[in-house]
Design goal:
Blueprint: H1 16-24, H2 30-34, E1 40-42, E2 58-65, E3 70-73, E4 79-87, E5 90-97, E6 111-117, E7 119-121, E8 124-128, E9 131-134, E10 145-147, H3 156-173, H4 182-187, H5 193-201, H6 206-234, H7 249-254, H8 261-274, E11 281-286, H9 293-305, E12 309-314, H10 317-332, E13 338-341, H11 347-359, E14 364-368, H12 369-373, E15 381-387, H13 394-403, E16 408-413, H14 419-426, E17 430-434, E18 445-449, H15 454-466, E19 470-474, E20 488-489, H16 508-518, E21 524-527, H17 533-544, E22 550-553, E23 566-571, H18 579-586, E24 597-601, H19 610-620, H20 624-635, H21 638-641, E25 650-652, E26 655-657, H22 666-682, H23 690-701
Parallel strand pairs: 5-8, 11-16, 11-17, 12-14, 12-15, 13-14, 15-16, 18-24, 19-22, 19-23, 21-22, 23-24
Antiparallel strand pairs: 1-10, 1-20, 2-4, 2-6, 3-4, 4-5, 6-9, 7-8, 25-26
Helix pairs in contact: 3-5, 5-6, 6-13, 6-22, 6-23, 8-9
The structure holds adenosine-5'-diphosphate and magnesium ion (MG).
Adenosine-5'-diphosphate (ADP) binds near residues 259, 286 and 289.
């Protein structure tokens, strides 16, 4: 008997090849397939008259076949099935290529619902290869057709068909089963899971879809909350070697500046933590550029002074290299021996660094997370510093804590996360805030403009470059809209089933090309999250070196690379970004002496609403913590859960969200954490809820594939 754990290969028509494609998206079982939610829908229920359609967007029309379909042979072995169909507003030529069998599918007088772009030709309207469904045979046609995230070699049709099979198995197998305790479900007015799954894949209405979405988001947030709470429970206050000598005046005396009050407070926290025989477990939170690194340097110096070694881990190779450069220069003067360990080094070099770490000759090893957590052994490990920018990685931290027994732990994060969320998400991590910028830091003047400024903006770009500056341009989307793109994104449907309409997205690929044409004299480069790490690093490096004038990218550049000459940040479709994200992006410029600017481009400025309100907030507000609080109120916790990478797999610290990124309800996350706490109080290992435990395992440990 098939059930949720049945191998996907058991579905009729799914062979080894297709199963491999599914595996790439993390789908192995029938249950996994049901958890593969649409990224949007085709709005086929919005049936229009031909005269009421527009040629740019796909429309749904109900037409009666007026002429017998004919089959013609064209050149290049192509064939064409053609006929006319009509509604009360006009006639439409309908054409299909290379599908001869369609000749017999459309009898004169029968009605069909067609879906596609309606173009004009000299005879009237025309549609090429529209999707079609027989209409008027008494059965209701679904109003919304799912559009799934795909991976190469899989089509929407295949997924839809397999999904149907999976749904019928679900209907038998766990019709009445719902792993969410009923009190929780009722307390938050959530629908049952089987209903949610049915409606997310085949919505009967917007209202039903909204209910389904809320339930599935809750499930995901609850799983996340449970996993985080369990993991942070594991970060025990273990023993550590106390550092009795916490005098850093030698370090202070060689700094080219004096520490800010905020930095002093953080360093005092660190000194206090490290002087105990119980491990420090602290996070430094503060805006980009506020000077977290020197606090970490103080911690490292203290560790080394007390005879311990330290490891510093950065999320990317460039950042690791940057830290290495800075720390070598600073700590080197105090006799601290620094070593770098990154993937691009030769095997012999890596071996040497591992050896000096193990022998204790090196005081600090700086490298990428992957490399350091993957087997560097220290003679006297005493401190682990993680510069993780804004990934949470609670789970990795738990692993790290286990591995680095006896070590103090310090994490730096550039996400000024609101207090309420920090408590929920970080659990028992102590947090120090740096809420003050070093003196003399310039403010990045911020403007919000619409398309009508495009010409002037191009002039401004060129002025910046002529004056020796560099330009970042950030776009939300990667490629041109694919043909199979949903016209309604999951993101655009709120919990009430209302649809938000948003301006079309500027594509990064297309725009990069456009800019190369406008500015043939400048070097334009393009960077996006789906590139390989080494490729990304290379582009970033040449931008940092000044070999590239304009860097067009998706949000990947949020990760904290320092390019002092960058003086202009342009964000396209700025309405798509959360405040905190915009703030992070703005922090990429103004890092040198050059006067810097941030320009937010958005058509939403012409529409009263939250998007406009957000953009205007950015003009007024420059404090990261204040912005974070506002963001939480305006957008919900989604942005804080998101990772720095813009790949459409929603992830935070390695945890991938399928649907919760879209969460617009700040309360839901807090609720999820409260419920998680209550559940764990009742059953600390979740033995009473094996299915929930299962989901947590999947979310936190499974290596899931990427999805386009
Ligand atoms: P982040 O918090 O983003 O990691 P960094 O530690 O990289 O910021 O610091 C940003 C810049 O500010 C560095 O060039 C650093 O030398 C400088 N800086 C840090 N603290 C101070 C200070 N107290 N006064 C002046 N400059 C400072
Ligand atoms: Mg930093």
């Amino acid at each position: 008997m098939a059930d949720m754990n049945t191998d996907i290969k058991k579905l009729y028509g799914v062979g080894k090849v297709r199963a491999e494609k599914y595996a790439k998206m993390g789908v192995y079982t029938v249950g996994d397939l049901l958890d593969h939610y649409p990224r949007g829908y085709e709005n086929r229920g919005d049936v229009r008259l031909l005269s009421d359609t527009s040629p740019e967007v796909k429309s749904s029309v109900v037409l009666t076949v007026s002429t017998q379909p004919t089959l013609a042979r064209l050149k290049n072995r192509m064939t064409l099935v053609k006929f006319k169909a009509h509604d009360e507003s006009g006639f439409c030529d309908i054409a299909y290529f290379n599908q001869d069998y369609l000749k017999n599918v459309f009898p004169v007088g029968s009605e069909f619902r067609f879906y596609g772009k309606v173009q004009m030709n000299r005879n009237g309207y025309a549609m090429t290869s529209p999707a079609y469904e027989p209409y008027g045979d008494g059965s209701e046609l679904p109003p919304l057709l799912p559009v799934y995230p795909l991976t190469e070699g899989l089509t929407q049709k295949q997924i839809a068909k397999d999904m149907k099979a999976a749904m019928s198995i679900a209907a038998y197998a766990d019709a009445e089963e719902d792993y969410l305790p009923e009190e929780i479900r009722l307390r938050h007015s959530l629908c049952v899971r089987s209903y949610a799954l049915r409606q997310i894949h085949m919505p009967e209405s917007f209202a039903a879809l909204a209910k389904a979405k809320k339930r599935l988001i809750f499930d995901e947030l609850l799983t996340f909350a449970l996993g985080v709470s369990m993991a942070s429970g594991k970060i025990q206050r273990h023993a550590a070697v106390p550092c009795h000598d916490t005098d850093i005046s030698a370090l202070e005396s060689i700094l080219p500046y004096s520490l800010t009050g905020a930095q002093r407070r953080v360093i005092d926290d660190i000194k206090r933590d490290m002087s105990w025989d119980c491990a420090m477990n602290r996070m430094i939170v503060g805006d980009v550029g506020c000077g977290k690194t020197v606090c970490a340097a103080a911690a490292i110096y203290i560790a080394v002074k007390n005879g311990l070694q330290a490891a510093l881990m950065a999320p990317t190779e460039i950042l690791a290299t940057q830290h290495y450069g800075d720390l070598c220069e600073l700590l080197g003067k105090l006799g601290v021996r620094c070593e770098l360990l990154v993937g691009s080094m030769s095997a012999a070099e890596k071996k040497r660094v591992r050896a000096v770490a193990a022998s204790g000759e090196a005081d600090i090893i700086i490298g990428t997370q992957a490399i350091i957590s993957d087997g560097v052994s220290f003679a006297r490990s005493g401190l682990v510093v993680a510069d993780e920018q804004h990934r949470f990685g609670v789970n990795q931290r738990a692993v790290l804590a286990e591995k680095n027994n006896l070590s103090h732990m310090l994490v730096m994060s550039a996400t000024p996360i609101p207090r309420s969320l920090a408590l929920a998400i970080y659990g028992n991590l102590d947090v120090s805030r740096i809420d003050e910028m070093p003196p003399g830091r310039q403010r990045v003047d911020t403007f919000a403009v619409d398309e009508s400024y495009r010409q002037r903006l191009n002039g401004f770009i060129s002025k910046q470059i002529e004056e020796g500056g560099q330009v970042y341009i950030v776009c939300p989307a990667v490629e041109e809209k694919e043909d199979e793109e949903a016209d309604l994104l999951m993101d655009d449907i709120d919990f009430q089933g209302q649809v938000r309409t948003a301006p079309p997205l500027k594509s990064a690929t297309g725009y990069a090309k456009e800019l190369s044409d406008i500015f043939p004299q400048y070097k334009v480069a393009f960077l996006h999250g789906r590139m390989k790490g080494a490729e990304k690093d290379e582009i970033m490096r040449s931008f940092a070196a000044g070999d590239v004038d304009i860097l067009v990218s998706t949000t990947v550049i949020e990760v904290g690379v320092n390019v002092p000459r960058a003086s202009l940040m342009i964000v396209e479709n700025a309405e798509r970004f959360g405040l905190s994200q915009l703030h992070q992006l703005r922090g990429r410029v103004g890092r040198g002496k050059r006067k810097s600017y941030c320009v937010l481009v958005s058509e939403s400025l012409n529409i009263e609403g939250k998007a406009k309100e957000r953009l205007l907030t950015m003009k007024k507000c420059y404090d990261g913590f204040e912005i974070a609080e506002k963001d939480l109120v305006m957008r919900g916790p989604g942005d804080f859960l998101k990772g720095a990478d813009d790949s459409s797999v929603r992830q935070s610290g390695g945890i991938k969200f399928r649907i919760a990124e879209l969460c617009d309800d700040a309360e839901l996350l807090t609720v999820a954490f409260d419920e998680a706490k209550a559940l764990l109080a009742e059953s600390s290992d979740l033995a009473a809820y094996p299915q929930l435990a299962d989901r947590i395992n999947k979310m936190f440990t499974l290596e899931q594939g990427t999805v386009n």
